[in-house]
Amino acid sequence: ENLTNQIAxxxxxxxxxxxxxxxxxxxxxxxxxxxxxxxxxxxxxEVAVQDNGTGIAPDQIDxxxxxxxxxxxxxxxxxFNIATLGFRGEALASIxxxxxxxxxxxxxxxxxxxxxxxxxxxxxxxDAGSAKxxxxxxxxxxxxxxxxLKYLKSPRTELMKIVDIVNRIALGHPEISLTLTSEGKVxxxxxxxxxxxxxxxxxxxxxxxxxxxKIESEDPDFTVYGLVSKPELSRSSRNFIxxxxxxxxxxxxxxxxxxxxxYGTKLSGKKYPIAVVAIEADPxxxxxxxHPTKEEVRLSKEKELSRLLTSAVTDALLAGEEDPLFxx
Length: 328
Ligand code: ADP
Ligand code: MG
Hints:
Heat Shock Protein 90, Ribosomal Protein S5, domain 2, nuclease, hydrolase, binds adenosine-5'-diphosphate, elongated, alpha+beta, ATP binding, binds magnesium ion, ATP-dependent DNA damage sensor activity, 5-stranded mixed β-sheet, ATP hydrolysis activity
């Protein structure tokens, strides 16, 4: 119970894109190598996420949908040593409270389970054949919380937020094949073959990908890896900067600034690079338990990491001036 109290409760699900983010992160936590995301009506009619991960055993279904039930931390020590993306055990419970949810899952690819939830309660559970992995379908989001619906932006904007989060997760996981479709139309498909530059080409275009330089650096606490644009390629918005910490997309102002510092005076005024930066850190240095949606992260040794990132960018841009561009 103490553990439960240590986990701050909060609103996890603000909009369709939150559903997509939580379900995809769960799939990644379940070691999926292939993840399909399908949305209808900007995710308000339906979000379906299918993975080829571990699956959930029949007797674990209730637990998975229970608030504060997580298979990912067993004790208070684990709470400060979090390697997986999820750990609060809030997402599925929160989603099931504000939508109609159906799950089809199997741990062995033969016998599996189908179950439904509505308004936070289970409506049925039965045996069902299924491929190994999990498919969770979320329908009629916010059907019982009309106030939430009022806060949403236009369908177009909500869809863009879904595209944005899937793109960023894809960039953070070139080793996972991710597909996003909307109304049956493919908006993103990554190969999962581990080639970050190819994924950048997929998402931002081939021209952009060819103008990126590789950054790679480490110290005893952190490794930094990614692609950053040459100064000529800058954009007038910060939105093209993606920073991933231990595989999770994060927002961190200090690190974004450190990245910009690496450009020195090469970027004029209100210009920002296109960048994908994956940071690996000892989970003990990361306090993810700050914000319910976990995008805001507190870091020990943030100054050291900032310096590492800045110099990695500076070095890469210098090397990029000398070397011919690497090709896809
Ligand atoms: P958390 O991710 O914080 O543990 P969630 O509510 O997101 O909490 O998920 C609850 C639990 O359900 C997870 O701990 C995991 O055991 C199980 N689970 C959820 N999604 C999947 C999935 N796609 N594959 C396998 N297990 C899953
Ligand atoms: Mg989760």
